[in-house]
Amino acid sequence: MRKPRMCNIVCRKVLDKKTAKAFKEKIDDEYRVNMILDNLPLVVPIRGFDQENGVVYQHGFHVGLKGRYAGSKEEKQFINNHLTFTVKYHKDPHADSARIVGFEVKPFSVKHEYKGEWNEKTRLTTCDPQAKRAVTSSESPQEVEETREIIFTYDVEFQESDVKWAYRWDTYLLMADDQIHWFSIVNSLMTVLFLSGMVAMIMLRTLYRDISKYNQLETQEEAQEETGWKLVHGDVFRAPANSDLLCVYVGTGVQFFGMILVTMIFALLGFLSPSNRGGLMTAMLLLWVFMGLFAGYSSVRLYKLFKGTEWKKITLKTAFMFPSTIFSIFFVLNALIWGQKSSGAVPFGTMIALVLLWFGISVPLVFIGSHIGIQKPTIQDPVKTSKIPRQIPEQAWYMNPTFSILIGGILPFGAVFIELFFILTSIWLHQFYYIFGFLFIVFVILIVTCAEITIVLCYFQLCSEDYRWWWRSYLTSGSSALYLFLYAAFYFFTKLDITKPVSGVLYFGYMLIVSYSFFVLTGTIGFYACFRFTRLIYSSVKIE
Q1: How far is the C-alpha of 457 from the C-alpha of 76, rounded, in Å?
Q2: 420-453: per-residue pLDDT in tens?
Q3: Measuring CA to CA, how many Å separate 466 from each of 82, 236, 544?
Q4: Same domain assignment for residues 376 and 425
Q5: Would you tell me which of 31, 134, 336, 458 could form a disulfide with 530, CB atoms 3.0–4.6 Å apart?
Q6: How many structural domains is the chain composed of?
Q7: pLDDT of 31 above 50
Q8: pTM
Q9: Residue 200's CB: how many other CB atoms inside 10 A?
């Protein structure tokens, strides 16, 4: 600590055919070397183009670079074999001790030279501490070829810094440009205001004009001309087809919503610092497991409303359906990573631990939640359901279920789309994502947008005397997940340069998991919004 080093020789390697090929592949695929010092990741400072004297940090340094010799057309691979480390420290004003607050590196490619035969005491001519000759550029780079020798060297310099130890992560987490986030939020708020206006109009029109008219018992023809939603009062709370599946999906969505909400609150309060690597993932997994309680409760409450009797079957489905799908995809992806002998694979022991968490804590909690739910009195419908289902009139083309469901997904996706770009960039392009404040605002906007678009489309649907709203309300806002997946595909082809099939499969596999989770989350928000809305309007009218 605080003892600078210059031109320390690490080792000398002569490349054989296999090693040279491996190095070339890693350089072609732009692999980076990551290191950690005192829990700080190694970064390469890169001068920003647009910011005045701003610096952008790149995680880790590239194994090497590709280039051509002057006058040659052939592209060669050069290895970064000299590293100049800068360790920044903050001195304790009351003692002689110091704490590390920064860890940076500048990589160089240098063809090292020396006189005579190589031995332990050889001095380099290209980099010599006694002659004060340091490496400052990559003018004569080290080429990667079979039988070439490569000498690896490094310098360490220590710099005193004003940054206190408690704030050392701030430089890593500096937002390059937060204007675009504000632009995204204002853009999303416009959508929300537009939708809120529509919902307010519908509420005013419905709850004041329609209801007062119905309750004054005007002639049936006038009321019928006015709106069609009252006409379906005898069918609007009829249980839908596949009601069991709907209960399971709603329960899962509640579990997911609880997990995301609590994670975001923790992150906002600063509990999930990036210095605790894997903290975010651990928190999310544990919260998912404990939110099983709410999943069981909400799915059984809904099941009881549909006059269901086999509550244990629904509970089992809630506990296993969504997690088993996700786990299967994850297992296949992990097997692919194992097959590539990558260190990024989740160890087998961790997989077993995940299964134990799921079976040992999550499943019992889902059952406890269901048991509490089944003890509660059944939710009462505001109007009685008739015995014979009413015939649904022919619908206009724009009220076609497929069309209205696909239209419904556009707005929630539009609300999160810019933030999504940043999240994808941070996941796939090795950058820090730590703007949970923005993310929380976007999440609130997402909830409001999902709720409002579903209410608007549900109202139009009931007005055209189509009472099959249960599944439609879930799928309307849930369809935003389809756009999310399509955007992920667009991002893959435009922003990422992935050529290996396994990497492509991994990307789409993980994005499929994300999209499926998003579907469950947004679908449930839309469903509950519509559920409250229909109960509200039908409880306000007198039904003879």
Answers
A1: 60
A2: 888 888 778 766 666 788 889 889 999 999 999 9
A3: 71, 9, 21
A4: no
A5: 458
A6: 3
A7: yes
A8: 0.85
A9: 11
